[in-house]
Amino acid sequence: MTGTIYDLAIVGGGINGAGIAADAAGRGLKVLLAEMGDLAGATSSASSKLIHGGLRYLEHRQFRLVREALAEREVLLAKAPHIIHPLRFVLPHIAGMRHPALIRMGLALYDHLAPRRVIPPSMAIDLRRDPAGRALRPELEQGFAYYDCWVDDARLVVLNARQAADLGATILTRTRVAGAAIADGLWRVSLDDGTGTREIGARVLINAAGPWAGDVSSSALHGSAAEQSTAAKQSAGTKPLTLRLVKGSHIVVPRIAGAEDAYLVQSGDGRVVFALPFERYFTLIGTTDVLFIGHAEDVAIAPEEETYLLDLANRFFAKKLAASDIVWRYSGVRPLVDDGSSDPSAISRDYRLDLVAEPGSPPLINVVGGKITTYRRLAEAALVKLETYVRAARGPWTGTAVLPGGDLGEGGIEGYRMALAHRYPAIGMRLISRLATLYGTRAADLLGDAKSMADLGGHIGGGLTEREVAYLKAFEWARTPDDILWRRTKTGLHLTDRLRLLASERLAALL
């Protein structure tokens, strides 16, 4: 017997699942999202933290994807100005690299593929005079600069889930979809939260499980339930879900002296890697592109990937880096559209929405590929595909709506920081700045009636307080120390091994 009936049941709490949940809930649909781990617990928190068009995609003639992504930069910048901001990228030129005229032509195309209102244009720069040159080897004299945007990727996912929940969606983390089968014209979805199993019904099933999407699709369309639609089973054989799994790895080192901008550097094989300012005191270097075979939950950086990233950084930066400089490393698996390319870097980052729908049976949408920058457009496209299956009360709306905390006003993030500091004069400016950046205007909800630092409870480490932990537990689905230390915040990066262990113990007792 099926319990509550939803319009949409979404499997997967990454950026695509959370984005679809928010869009659908805002249209008046009844939505459930189930995530087997934590929100942004896999691919969506293992990105390069960028909202960008993808300059290198121009060489692969992916003009539609680049145009759509470039247009989304400013849409997302307006939606979440507390966690997204413009960032200047510097391309130092070396012998053997693409010809300067070709680079300038590519940057000019990048500037004009989509309208710009906030993002500045590209330019050639003299690295002997530009401050960005101080971090580089002295023989590097010529370069180029352009702009894209930085994003806190894990928080972007959480904010979309928070918006969905505010609009009535049910968000379930640590809840595995144990099975899905068709019965009585609905998807019958079995949910296991570790304490027991319950069942819900859904008019539409959306498979946004990322690297696990193939498993979810196979399970749904080949279920053993007696009432499973024969037509749907046959459909599964004619529309196989094919993915190309590509591993991307990053390393984090102490801030390279003078590297306050982002850098795009090219290896001898033509691939490019970013070196990005990260968390005030660090530089983030990545990513690699390696075809991945195995279980996505076991993904980890390989020694040769670390060596590749370090060697490439040392080719450009004056500061020599060694493996002992690495303070953090992470890897993720990108589930990409299988376009037949043998080069992992050339595989399209575009998305595909596979609709499996037979007469008399509820539809399934498999979400394949995509990138953080285009998640909102992907969500809109998914809702278009579902117009004949569920009736929404309103049309597209996310293009002009801010995410939770993003209503900063004309003063932007700096103006809001000052207003928050004025409202809470007894709270240190460093903490005020940190909270404003993470939570935007919802920092005031977190601080509440606090009149002093003592009102925020005990100090966990790295600026984290007991009141913030309580907020994250109550409003952002934080359930484990890692949810807080590495995804909701990056506090873990700012603590020594010993202090991180102590913080984890404190957090485990509070959660």
Distance between the termini: 34 Å
Q: How does the overall form come out from the CA principal axes?
A: globular
| Largest sheet geometry | 10 strands, mixed
Instruction: List the total number of helices.
Output: 14
Q: Which structural category do the helix and sheet elements fall into?
A: alpha+beta
Which spans of ≥5 residues are poorly predicted at pLDDT below 50? 224-238
Overall number of strands: 20
Radius of gyration: 23 Å
Mean pLDDT: 92
Q: Level of helix content?
A: 25-40%
Report the β-strand fraction as a percent range: 15-25%
Description:
With 511 residues, the chain is an alpha+beta fold. It is 31% helix and 24% strand. The protein has 14 helices and 20 strands. Strands 3, 4, 5, 6, 11, 12, 13, 14, 15 and 16 form a 10-stranded mixed β-sheet that branches. Strands 1, 2, 7, 8, 9, 10, 17 and 18 form an 8-stranded mixed β-sheet that branches. Strand 13 and strand 14 form a beta hairpin. Helix 1 packs parallel to helix 4 and helix 9 packs across helix 10. The longest helix has 17 residues. The protein is globular and about 70 Å long. The two termini are 34 Å apart. About 3% of the residues have low confidence.
